[in-house]
Amino acid sequence: MYVNTVGRRIAPVLLAALLPALPARATQLMFDVLGERISYDTMVGQPGRYTTALWMNTSNVHPAYAWIPGQLDDIGPRTITLSSNDNSTTFNMELTGVVYGGISSNLTKTTAPSGEGGSAAGAEQGSSYTIYSGAAQSYGTEMYQSTSTARHSPFTIVRPLFNLDTTALLAALKGLPSGTYTAALPLSYRYKVLYEQGGTWSHEIRPLVLTFQVKYLGLSLNEITVTGTGEMKTDYTEHSTEVTGNTSWTVSATGMIPAGISMKFAQPDHLFEMKPTVATEKSGTQSIPYNLTINNTDSVMGNDDPNTLVQNGKLTAGADTVIIKPASGTESLKFELKADFTQGYIPSGTYTDQFTVLFQVVVE
């Protein structure tokens, strides 16, 4: 009998040149990656309109009579380098805009004055305003203006708008060691501002840092070892023609396999019978069907997966592919694959069979 194994590893502020520089503030994207499964709760929206779930609080945004939302100073594709100790990888994301939040209810949205507004498209939603298109460093077509002569803080929070291909992120991480990978992307955005009614329009440029944290647990099947000769040891029952035989293999798997490994028969329609060799074959000699079962020594079966894989030479229902999980931990498992038969009179000789099983790490 034969077992084959296959493994798979898996900015300063510009205001009449009088205001001091502001410290950069950050907003964060956090991802948990388990093999090829990614989860996040810090990114919201839809493709092309993703943003961070958490806002960045602004500081020193001076009260104004009116203001015009503006675009990021750099939009389009950017390359992000994620690093962890001596390992790093890159992936691309596209910067598309900026979201201003916490806009005062004492400010009313209206068309920006000729010569001051720009062509960047935007949309209002509640107390926030999103600039989602337009060239870098451009301004919107609309402005917010005080309902009186009083000044109000234009906005209190901000976050970037972007498009991120999570499939590309997964591809970039594939093959890297498990760990926490981080990156920081410095950004800046601008807006026009009118501090006093009847005053002169100026603009401010403010810094923003988008940080990344990716907790990566890479799935891998580092090694499969199979020990056992596959030689059936036979027993003859006294005063009976009944013959029994059995053999077993010990299968050990190591790697990052929290969800276990799958074991699949390469030829599920195979007849699991030992056939007589040419030298053994005689008139009337028949093949010997056998059974295959899994004995979980340091493992557990997947939900509803049978321990009995083959019964009397035929594959049992649901046994063409089964999942074996670690009994504890995430990095190793062990089980016994046992073959046995019970047969009537068997002419002396040699009977053989072989089957192939494929092992692969499970991705939930």
Produce a short descriptive summary:
The chain is an all-beta fold. 2% of the residues lie in helices and 52% in strands.
Features:
mainly beta, disordered N terminus, 2% helix, Immunoglobulin-like, 364 residues, 52% strand
Give the SSE map:
Blueprint: E1 26-34, E2 37-40, E3 43-44, E4 50-52, E5 56-57, E6 66-72, E7 76-84, E8 87-101, E9 107-111, E10 122-125, E11 128-131, E12 142-146, E13 157-164, H1 166-173, E14 179-194, E15 202-217, E16 220-227, E17 233-236, E18 243-256, E19 261-265, E20 273-276, E21 288-289, E22 291-301, E23 308-311, E24 314-315, E25 321-326, E26 332-343, E27 351-352, E28 357-361
Written account of the structure:
The chain is mostly beta strands and 364 residues long. The chain has two domains: 26-217; 220-361, Immunoglobulin-like. Helices cover 2% and strands 52% of the residues. The protein contains one helix and 28 strands. The chain has one helix at residues 166-173, and strands at 26-34, 37-40, 43-44, 50-52, 56-57, 66-72, 76-84, 87-101, 107-111, 122-125, 128-131, 142-146, 157-164, 179-194, 202-217, 220-227, 233-236, 243-256, 261-265, 273-276, 288-289, 291-301, 308-311, 314-315, 321-326, 332-343, 351-352, 357-361. Strands 16, 17, 18, 19, 22, 23, 24, 25, 26 and 28 form a ten-stranded antiparallel β-sheet that branches. The two termini are 32 Å apart.
